[in-house]
């Protein structure tokens, strides 16, 4: 018999767990068993649990170790006891139930059986829709594996809604005992993230490296919705995240998705007052209603034209168009909009609509006459590059066009995979010289990145976008300063030059302070010395601040190097790089990125052996590491798959923060983070870069102007994202002798306006 385990709470029972249990009763056969752990359920709910000899119910609140864990870890609730805004990645309570339910039943099996057969965890939002028995199950994966899981190609943790352990082998016993111990002793908070998926994936990687036979059911899967990309989809469906609400949909259409950027869409409608709107990607009709309501604030009649595949969508079209949302039928949406029209009629408003079912590449051409005089379009249909381009080509005559799904990096430097940036590519290739605006957004993408609306104003007579939508964060798109092939060569060369590559790895958090010194002119050396004496913190610098610190009588503990350009060349600060390392103190530890130009490494090696290698994260590098076989041998990067990459931003100073966060530092003091230059002469204002663009530019923030460069502006963007991140799990203090661009960014950020616990309850 194969044993499954799941768990659910009382608040989730009616939403999805009940449907999951009913599907087990309907479709499972007697060679499978489900042990369902529940907590916080009412007596009425327990009484109505679906009854079957295949299901055994257990009260998770009776697992004493879990109770002790919840009490001991109660401050690590995603807000650090109210000291920061909620961050689900740092919620040690939310994600523990799965581990305690799974390991509680495992320990029972392990005590009774040396060979315990398969033990499989399955989330309570997984619905079985076809007959399931052991024969069916083991067609989905090899029965002699030791562990099976749903891996992700572009995200660094697996989908743990389904994970199986073959207890006929010894290593899965060790695995489950270890992960239970990780929770029992509170080791969870030593990890970068505290979700069960993140921690289990780290264990999977470790055990695989030690010989466990791990079978990845989805080796090529991308994105979060990997369940559907596995063989399990033949008999199960995972209603993950917002899709949980679709399980119990009584209206016949999916629940509306409410995100801040869609409020921006409504603002656009109010600003331009269209009487007609065309939308590509009607989905459930919710956005149509929102836009109509916004229009009705200024007018009494509104006509909507919607295009969607509706029920013609298939698994193939989902894959082609990168869709992970549930589909709605034409009839369900038609009925919803009809009902809305009737309600508007009661308010003396006229709402009319027309829906087109089918592929927009075809249906838009057929509706060409209908779309001639439409003033406003919202494009959010298929996400393939070809479909986005086709939708735009058919609608580019429309005065106001709003695109969804423009992607940018989040505060950790993460973004979506290249196949998803069709809107970005269209704007890059087609919109030069046009009135194109990317609206500010903090809407996060699962797995990393931010998603925005992008607005094209095609009519010169149209007023500018409302000012409240134009107050945007600093958005720049830095490019590698050398070709990627050169970076690959640099990495492989440095792997041979540097001996120590093992020091940069995840360490436990601790209370020691990191004093990061960038290269700006605002460094207050007296304050730095005073702070170092007070905190005994480690001083970490970059190449431009290193000689300044030595000259001031300060010996940095470490110096972080990230520069793929030659030692004899000039930096963007106009300084020959070689001169920065003419004097080296033997006590300084040099942390040299693998992508650094080998001439820099060799020059420093001539002066000191106190050198440590590290790997700077980029999507391109990570993909090359994880997919070596896709490249000729001479183009492969010889970094091991389980390396710890350092994230953090576009320059060495920002990466230093990321590196020392990995080292367990949570208290950071920043010096020399200027992101601007004090003065620019008239001659310097005329300087241009290799592409002909002006080197120096003037920017305004908080009604103050600063001179900066493209590279420094990219750093300012990194600072803005770091200082304003609501979920940041560290303290950041900022120091400067004079006002700078970064100082203004800091002063108006969450970190610059910190609320301290000790000050909250003063009388």
Keywords:
alpha/beta; 18% strand; single chain; Rossmann fold; Spore Coat Polysaccharide Biosynthesis Protein SpsA, Chain A; seven-stranded mixed beta sheet; eight-stranded parallel beta sheet; globular
Describe the structure.
It is a single chain. Helix content is 34%, strand content 18%. It is built from 27 helices and 26 strands. An eight-stranded parallel sheet has the order 22-21-20-19-18-17-23-26. Helix 9 (260-272) crosses helix 10 (286-296) and helix 25 (710-723) runs parallel beside helix 26. The model is unreliable at 242-252 and 471-482 (pLDDT under 50).
Element layout with pairings:
Elements: E1 2-9, H1 10-27, E2 32-39, H2 43-47, E3 55-59, H3 64-72, H4 96-112, E4 118-122, E5 126-128, H5 134-137, E6 147-150, E7 159-166, H6 170-184, H7 196-209, E8 214-216, E9 236-238, H8 244-247, H9 260-272, E10 276-280, H10 286-296, E11 301-308, H11 315-321, H12 330-346, E12 350-357, H13 360-366, E13 376-379, H14 385-395, E14 400-408, H15 422-430, E15 435-438, E16 450-457, H16 467-470, H17 484-497, E17 513-517, H18 525-535, E18 538-542, H19 546-551, E19 558-561, H20 577-580, E20 589-593, H21 598-605, E21 611-616, H22 619-626, E22 645-646, H23 652-662, E23 667-671, H24 682-685, E24 696-701, E25 704-709, H25 710-723, E26 731-734, H26 741-747, H27 757-760
Parallel strand pairs: 1-2, 1-4, 2-3, 6-8, 10-11, 10-13, 11-12, 13-14, 17-18, 17-23, 18-19, 19-20, 20-21, 21-22, 23-26
Antiparallel strand pairs: 4-7, 5-9, 6-7, 14-16, 15-16, 24-25
């Amino acid at each position: 018999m194969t044993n499954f385990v799941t768990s659910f709470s009382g608040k989730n029972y009616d939403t999805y767990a009940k449907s999951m249990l009913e599907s087990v009763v309907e479709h499972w056969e007697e060679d499978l068993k489900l042990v369902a752990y529940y907590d916080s359920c009412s007596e009425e709910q327990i009484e109505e649990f679906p009854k079957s000899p295949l299901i055994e119910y257990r009260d998770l609140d009776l697992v004493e170790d879990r109770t002790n864990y919840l009490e001991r870890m109660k401050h690590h609730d995603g807000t650090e006891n109210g000291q920061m805004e909620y961050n689900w990645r740092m919620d040690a309570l939310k994600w523990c139930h799965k581990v305690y339910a799974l390991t509680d039943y495992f320990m029972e099996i392990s005590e009774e059986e040396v060979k315990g057969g398969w033990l499989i965890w399955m989330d309570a939002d997984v619905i079985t829709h076809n007959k399931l028995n052991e024969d069916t199950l083991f067609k989905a994966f090899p029965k002699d594996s030791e562990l099976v899981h749903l891996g992700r190609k572009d995200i660094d943790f697996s989908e743990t809604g389904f994970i199986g352990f073959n207890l006929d082998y010894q290593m899965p016993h060790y695995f489950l005992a270890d992960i239970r111990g990780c929770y029992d002793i509170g080791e969870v908070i030593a990890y970068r993230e505290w979700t069960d998926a993140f921690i289990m994936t780290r264990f999977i990687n470790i055990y695989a490296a030690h010989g466990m036979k791990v079978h990845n059911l989805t080796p090529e899967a991308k994105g979060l919705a990997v369940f559907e990309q596995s063989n399990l989809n033949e008999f199960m469906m995972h209603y993950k995240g917002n899709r949980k609400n679709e399980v119990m949909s009584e209206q016949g259409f999916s629940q509306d998705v409410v995100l801040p950027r869609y409020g921006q869409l409504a603002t656009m409608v109010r600003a331009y007052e269209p009487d007609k709107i065309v939308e590509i990607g009607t989905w459930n009709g919710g956005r149509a209603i929102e836009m109509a309501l916004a229009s009705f604030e200024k007018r009494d009649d509104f006509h909507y034209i919607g295009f969607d595949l509706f029920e013609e969508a298939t698994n193939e079209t989902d894959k082609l168009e990168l869709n992970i949302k549930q589909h709605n039928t034409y009839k369900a949406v038609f009925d919803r909009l009809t009902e809305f029209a009737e309600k508007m009629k009661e308010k003396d408003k006229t709402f009319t609509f027309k829906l087109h079912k089918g592929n927009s590449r075809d249906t838009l051409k057929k509706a060409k006459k209908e779309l001639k005089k439409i003033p406003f379009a919202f494009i959010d249909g298929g996400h393939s590059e070809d479909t986005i381009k086709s939708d735009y080509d058919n609608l580019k005559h429309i005065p106001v066009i709003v695109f969804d799904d423009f992607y940018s990096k989040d505060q950790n430097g993460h973004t979506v995979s290249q196949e998803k940036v069709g809107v970005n590519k269209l704007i890059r290739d087609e919109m030069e010289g046009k009135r194109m605006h990317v609206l500010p957004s903090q809407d996060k993408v699962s797995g990393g990145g931010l998603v925005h609306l992008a607005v094209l104003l095609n009519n010169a007579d149209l007023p500018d976008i409302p000012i409240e939508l134009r107050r945007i964060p600093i958005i720049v798109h830095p490019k590698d300063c050398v070709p990627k092939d050169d970076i690959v060569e640099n990495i492989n060369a440095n792997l041979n030059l540097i001996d120590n590559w093992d020091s940069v790895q995840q360490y436990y958090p601790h209370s020691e302070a990191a004093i990061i010194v960038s290269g700006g002119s605002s460094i207050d050396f007296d304050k730095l010395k005073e702070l170092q004496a007070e905190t005994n913190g480690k001083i970490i610098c970059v190449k431009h601040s290193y000689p300044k610190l030595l000259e001031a009588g300060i010996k940095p503990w470490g110096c972080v190097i990230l520069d793929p350009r030659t030692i004899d060349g000039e930096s963007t600060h106009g300084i020959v790089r070689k001169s920065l390392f003419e004097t080296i103190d033997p006590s300084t530890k040099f942390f040299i990125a693998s992508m650094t130009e080998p001439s820099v490494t060799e020059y420093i090696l001539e002066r000191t052996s106190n050198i440590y290698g590290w790997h700077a994260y980029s999507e391109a590098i990570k993909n090359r590491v994880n997919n070596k076989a896709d490249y000729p041998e001479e183009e492969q990067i010889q970094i091991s798959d389980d390396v710890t990459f350092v994230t953090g931003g576009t320059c060495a100073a920002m990466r230093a923060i990321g590196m020392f966060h990995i080292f367990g530092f949570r208290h950071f003091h920043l010096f020399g983070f200027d992101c601007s230059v004090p003065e620019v002469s008239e001659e310097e204002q005329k300087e241009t870069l290799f592409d002909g663009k002006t080197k120096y530019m003037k920017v305004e923030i908080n009604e103050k102007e600063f001179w900066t460069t493209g590279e420094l502006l990219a750093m300012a963007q990194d600072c803005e994202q770091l200082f304003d991140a609501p979920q940041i799990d560290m303290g950041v203090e900022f120091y400067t002798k004079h006002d700078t661009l970064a100082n203004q960014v800091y002063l108006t950020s969450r970190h610059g306006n910190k609320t301290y616990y000790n000050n909250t309850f003063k009388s």
